[in-house]
Amino acid sequence: MQLGLKTAQQFKEDLTMDKIMLLVPIVFGLMLLVNIFTEVIKKVTRDKIPTNLLVFILSVVVTIVAMFIYLSITGTVFIWWMMCIAITVAFFVAYSAMFGFDKWKQMFDQWRSLKSNKA
User: Rounded distance, CA 11 to CA 84, Å?
Assistant: First the structure.
């Protein structure tokens, strides 16, 4: 074993509920990044790429990059199944980026219209 690198067994032992609970804010942060990148790329490409396809591709790329950054910071050895987990998380990120922001915007618009109707 190389100095500072974790084995698969050590990684499994470190995978506690605390680290699993970090997945929610990580997915939220990745979703925000994907939304920002999507808006910028949509402005540059002038809607030549379907938005849902763009969001999915960006989700996969951003999630995989985030995984490798995490592995680099923690000194964990890459194992093939980590890529499967990253792609699964990318589906959650893509889903939340596609539908979560729209629902939040819809809720905000409804709240704003209710507020203006009371005034």
Answer: 16
